[in-house]
Amino acid sequence: MTHSSNPVTSQEKWIQGANGTLFVRIWSPERPGAQSPVFLLHDSLGCVELWRNFPAELCARSGRQVIAYDRLGFGQSDSHPGKLGVDFVAREAETDFAALRQQLGIDRFIVFGHSVGGGMAVNCAASFGEACAGLITESAQAFVEDRTIQGIEEARELFKDPAQVDRLKKYHGEKAEWVLGAWIGSWLSPDFASWSLLPVLPRVKCPVLVVHGIDDEYGSSRHPELIGQLSGGTAQVEVMADTRHVPHRERESTVVAMVADFLQGLN
Q1: pLDDT per residue as tens digits for the range 72-105
Q2: 266 vs 23, 133, 204, 206, 208, CA distance in Å?
């Protein structure tokens, strides 16, 4: 439930991206201020719907607009025309995220990314340094780790069960097979093995909040440590006990409070 003291409304929009139409949902507080809105970037199997209550809770608690969108190929956005390129994490910032900002008329922003969305958020903060007021990464991978590969290989076995694919279809429709293939194919590709955020992080100049679960099945605490150490701005690193890969769902109220506190100092 959202905080009744600050009722939240939501609206849906369709935005023209680089290669197709993107689905966007915007949560607004009853009395929005002039503060920068928060963009949410979802994970490899995610979409707007899979953020569940988190955006509304964050909007109510922070008093800021929260904007989430389905990346091309995911959720209610158009199908992706082909395979993800090896540079897909960096390209999101320069293509669809840039288009979204332009068409929504947003100058200054804060960006929050979960899992691979965290890597995309780092690139957004680095690419639009003057405009980015703050960066939050949650369960983000900074490089391709053995634990990441192992977690994806285990998930690949799990998704051999058609019932698991059907669960994805609930959110992605007929694009579900592409979504699954894009995730597994990208991360297990030999061409992607050398991918890393290490060259990008020093270009991030804004304050950074780094959130990670100690039991994250897709990445050790080495990832938040590196993001914190290498970011060019001030960094607050929070490694959460008894938490796996989706802190905003497993510990929603804690993560909302943590992010809202971080946002208080930002314009």
Answers
A1: 999 999 999 999 999 999 999 999 999 999 999 9
A2: 27, 6, 15, 10, 11
